[in-house]
Input
Amino acid sequence: MERPATSIHGQWTTRWAFVLAATGSAVGLGNIWKFPYIAGENGGGAFVLVYLLCIACIGLPVMMAEVMIGRRGRQNPVNALATLAKEELAHPSWKYLGWSGIAAGIFILSYYSVIAGQAMAYVFRAFSGVFEGVTPDGAQSIYDALSGDPERLLAWHTIFMIITMTVVARGVQHGLEKSVRFLMPALFALLLLLVGYAANTGEYFNQAVSFLFTPDFSKLTSEGVLIAMGHAFFTLSLGMGAIMVYGSYLSQDASITKVSISISIMDTLVAVLAGLAIFPLVFANGMEPGAGPGLIFVTMPIAFGHIAGGQFFGGLFFVLLVFAAWSSAISLIEPAAAWLVENKDISRRRACVLIGGTVWTIGLLTVFSFNIGQTWTLFGKTAFDLFDFLTANIMLPLGGLFIAIFAGWFMKQSSTTEELAIQQPIFYYGWRILIRYITPTAIVIVFLKGLMDAFGL
Ligand code: PFF
Output
């Protein structure tokens, strides 16, 4: 298999378009919905510190490796890895790494879409004024009524899947690129506004800052460290080929280091801002930071229910949350869609219908796990918890580990030097040491220790 010069799916029009699209993939429910609640469940500061360390020492080098492999292979993750493995005289089974990514994307989207569906439902609740003057108990019961109703969840899950498939079917420039150009700046502006509102809560804002940034290591377990590392992969969309496939549409002259740093910084900033918008309200209303997945669906309505213009801003917040989820969702199935188009010679549209149908069906398990299937558990976890744990804490870290091993040990130094094109040797060797030694060692240690802790071994 020869390495193509460009992808058959086209290319991002500019380097900035790639940064926006990859940031669109990275910034999503992971930052605004998941990060605050897992930080809450794992005790705050120490967890946040470990998460930041994981972004810098594991996430960034793996992101550079993924973009590099994608751009050099110029195809979907399975074919890109197969082509590069052949070129580097490595074993052809490296292509299975691409397969595990495609599977992870399908599993993640199956539950991601259900949560995004809840956010869509909240757009209507917020705009219609149901949150006006709402109490914490009232907000909780509004959330319980939605998540307890399988029909509603199913309807929203279906709608979200349809809009996701529509964008992917339209392709790189007309679908993916167009949709992220406005969404990202708008999301950023609104988050800043909400942090501004939360800053007015005075002592509660200070309490939130110290909750998030004062590390208390006695509150952190090794499972918590695994969750922090898994989240670093999840939030940067790493370990499953999403960034790899986006990299395959990146022009040859873009600096992989610069784009990767920009994406990581923007993604981290959004997560921290979301924490600063949410926790002051949690404390101000005497709520529990460890409330779990319903956290933003309960706290944000209370905030919006008590501010001037809250009806409008609340609606807007959930609209943007849906947009953030949407731009991430499209990247979750792009690897599978690109694989079908490249290998099965079918149209993008048909590919999307096929994958969408599969994801939708698997998603039913998550829909039911919030209501009639609450008691269907395995290892004490519901279907939703299992998909989340399996993908974020097992598949993505393992995917990241093997990507690091491939880029660090199986690609020749001359190939990585050429593709990364880093001018200063110190930065290139810094990356190489991280990707060969530090990243894989850290992933293995955290992974094994965290798994043992999680399963009580
Ligand atoms: N990074 C997204 C988020 O934080 O919500 C989730 C995600 C998207 C994970 C794409 C993995 C991926 F490939």
In short: The chain has one domain: 15-454.
